[in-house]
Write a structure and sequence with these properties.
single chain, about 100 residues, alpha+beta, Glutaredoxin, two-stranded antiparallel sheet, 3 helices, about 30% strand
Length: about 100
């Protein structure tokens, strides 16, 4: 199974940031729980990290591994688009009782 390394950039504890964190953690728990390293970075506390990764908007999810790197901007509520962006084949996996 592939190893995932993800960074989620958020801005403080806004509803949009909390939603992105919740949505991403749910997806990881359901699809890649043992193969994922996740860093959640608050751009207010760590602006240099955001600058280094050229983050212009939050929330921004950066997939570093597996290659190629990818970016997803938004609250990560569209599971299909997030899985597509992360290149995760979801097949018959169910999230919150919904067939994907």
């Amino acid at each position: 199974m592939q190893q995932f390394r993800l960074k989620l950039y958020v801005t403080g504890q806004t509803p949009r940031s909390r939603g992105a964190i919740r949505n991403l953690k749910r997806l990881i728990e359901e699809l890649i729980p043992e193969n994922c390293e996740l860093d959640i970075i608050d751009v207010q506390a760590h602006p240099q990290s955001a600058e280094d990764d050229k983050v212009l908007a939050t929330p921004t999810l950066i997939k570093e591994l597996p290659l190629p790197p990818r970016r997803i901007i938004g609250d990560l509520s569209d599971t299909n688009k997030v899985c597509e962006g992360l290149e995760i084949a979801i097949g018959d996996v169910r999230l919150q009782g919904e067939r994907l």
